[in-house]
Amino acid sequence: MSLSPLHQTGITAEQSSEALFITFNVKPGQHKQIRLALKRSPEVISNTQSVFKSANLHAVIGIGNEYWSQLSLETPKQLTGFQHTDLKQAPDTPVDLILHIRSDRRDITSILAQKLYQLFSDSVSLVEEVSCFKYLDSRDLTGFVDGTENPEGEHRKEVALVGNEDPSFCGGSYLHLQKFIHSLHSWEQLPVDQQESIFGRSKTDNIEFSSDKKSPHAHTKRTSLKNAQGESLEILRQSMPFATLTESGLMFASYCRTPDNFNKMLNSMLKGDTEGHTDHLMKYTQAVTGQAFFVPSLLWFTQL
Ligand code: HEM
């Protein structure tokens, strides 16, 4: 699959040292202006990337599932809303647009965010801006390395990008975003062996427990799923921690060529397996947002 010239590079880029997740709603009657701003955005992104070549700067612009139909007559085949598995544990909080900007330099991320905001600002209202950072050696704030089992190399594209199954939207990606606020005080009261059992991995050296030693409630057990043919269901996670003095947690971001994999994993975490084994990580964190977006290819923007 040779999709690289077409896809937004922020979908598959390797980890950066920091990121901004910015969500907007479109003001009434502003669709024409939004189309124009969207059309201009890829050039603003690529110009900024070429000025700051060494900053590892990448961006993604995604369109919320509900707003999509107002922008385009043709809809990605599998685009639906954030699933309603459990509204208490996984609230559904739709928004119209997302900017996911990341780089290895806070100043450069901010420069691009400002430039893109200038394009959109008169037509949108800001919903939320969350500033994230790489914590230690890519750990979540619970202290566990996050992203180890992510797909690698060219396989990232196979997992994250829509292919010929939906030719009009080839090179696009389904993005799911959840803001999780951690109860770090309770988590830190837990002995390390219990924390490790909850993840199914060791804490300091990040070794996976063998299958027979994993609790059915372990996060990695609940999210390692296979299809009927025995193939692993995969997503590309681009999650990152955030922290203020009063609120800290993880911006969980999943990119995939189908929304099914994320939906099945979330279901397996919250509803559990046939015997009702749920993900015990969820006792120590609470999702406060849940959004589904489609991230179109660069070609789509030129056709606006
Ligand atoms: C694995 C953290 C939510 C899907 C992991 C790992 C950590 C982690 C530390 C183990 C290392 C790794 O392979 O990355 C978290 C935290 C979450 C969260 C702190 C929320 C607070 C989610 C959600 C999903 C998900 C909502 C999908 C619906 C996965 C998958 C793996 C994984 C697919 C790899 C499992 C494997 O193959 O071993 N997560 N995660 N995670 N997580 Fe999460």
Automatic annotation (TrEMBL):
Its cofactor is heme b. Residues 8-134 form the Dyp-type peroxidase N-terminal domain. Transmembrane segments: none annotated. GO terms for molecular function: peroxidase activity. Residues 206-226 are annotated as: Disordered. InterPro entries: Dimeric_a/b-barrel, Dyp_perox_C, Dyp_perox_N, Dyp_peroxidase. Keywords: Iron, Metal-binding, Oxidoreductase, Peroxidase. It comes from the Bacteria. It holds the Pfam family Dyp_perox_C. Residues 137-298 form the Dyp-type peroxidase C-terminal domain. Residues 206-215 have a biased composition (Basic and acidic residues). Belongs to the DyP-type peroxidase family. This is Dyp-type peroxidase. It comes from Marinomonas phaeophyticola.
